[in-house]
Amino acid sequence: MSSRWFDRIDRLSLVPASLLPPEDPTKPLPRTARDWIVDVAMLIIAVGVGLLTFSGTYNSAVHHVSDAQVLLDLGLGLVGCGLLWWRRRFPVAIAIVTAGFSAFSSSTSVVALLALFTVAVHRRTSITLAVAIGGMIPGFLFLLWRPQTDRLWVDVVVSVSAAAVMVTWGMCVRARRQLVWTLRERAERAEAEQQLRAEQARTAERTRIAREMHDVLAHRISLVALHAGALEVNPDLPPAKVRESAELLRTTAHQALEELRGTIGVLRGDGAEDAPSVPQPTLRDIPRLVEQTRRAGAKIDFAMDVSADAPTALGRDAYRIVQEALTNAAKHAPGAATTVRVSGAPEAGLSVSVRNRQPLHVGATVPGSGSGLIGLRERVDLAGGTLSHGPDASGDFVVAARLPWQ
139, 103 in Cβ contact below 8 A? Predict the structure, then answer.
């Protein structure tokens, strides 16, 4: 994905590493600058508050604290502070180990609370509660091993309250990070869906343009081929007829180039400025289309009976159907007689039928891609009509369409 939420953050070093995507999923996430600051601050807090806690329990101890107990307490506290450096990678293990240390070391109690906070941030609630409840037992054992002058219930309330604060704080941080993850995933999913919709829209538009290009250029080029073929098979035509055919060739080729230039301009995105605007055909243009095809040498019996002006989209679809059918007749059955019938009314819909007989002779034809009739079927389906094509019982090839008047 080209644009994600973290790509738009100016200072990624101030974001927790757990919120950033890993470059290599098989390796742990490296610490960011923020993580380094937090970890160093926790070490300083753990050492400082641990020493204060040790001093308080040393001074309030009921019995004399031996040098061995002091060394054990401070040694376990120092090891516990060191273990905090790996608290993100092994949160549960560090919490269990430091909780065990707190049974013999008061300086480790703060380390155990910080480890419990990490578990609440990185693990689910059930695991956090289990570690919190299990971690209180070594603290109670410490009060039995080194009794304090304070009342027991006071120490218990303080320990439980501190653990509850750490668990609640960690769960709040975890909930906030989960919200950030959810929003990130939603943003990425929405962006991906938007890109997919845009790509689908571009594909649909290109398909539409390609269909229009095929409908227009295939017919024009077929007319050029028919004119050229007529000149080739009739080399003894009068000069006036040759000039007329040459003029038709030039006009048809020029129109094809203009329409091609307009379509390419749209594809390149500069059609609105450089390419001329090609008007869309309507039902009224069908007689002109038939006449142009006749001038190319085709034999066409044409009749149109429409009681009212057809809507623009309906007229364009009817024009394209007749155009494609005449193009196919010129390519695959040159010289064959063709019948074109267009009839309709607002209450009955529009009917288009193009029928051509078997070719009188087989000669060189313009190659076809086979996509013209497929494009016609898509066009008719989109208009809510029906299309049939193929030979009938008499062997004539028929293209028949029925379109709703809308």
Answer: yes
Question: Rounded to an integer, what distance in angstroms lies between the CA atom of residue 326 and that of residue 339?
Answer: 10
Q: In whole angstroms, what is the distance from residue 268 CA to residue 275 CA? A: 11
Q: How many helices and strands (H and E) does the chain possess?
A: 10, 5
**pLDDT tens digits for range 173-199:** 888 888 887 887 888 888 888 888 888
Kind and range of the H or E run holding 218: helix 152-233
* pTM value surpassing 0.85: no
Of 150, 165, 194, which residue sits at a domain end?
A: 150
Domain that holds residue 130: 5-150
Three-state DSSP class for residue 392: coil
The answer to whether position 380 is within a domain reads yes
Tell me whether residue 390 is in a domain: yes
- Annotate 115-139 with three-state secondary structure: HHHHHHHHCCHHHHHHHHHHHHHHH
Q: Which of 115, 150, 185 is the last residue of a domain?
A: 150
Give the pairing type, strands 337-345 and 299-306. Answer: parallel
5-13 long-range contacts (CB < 8 A, ≥24 apart) are 5/183, 5/184, 5/187, 5/188, 6/184
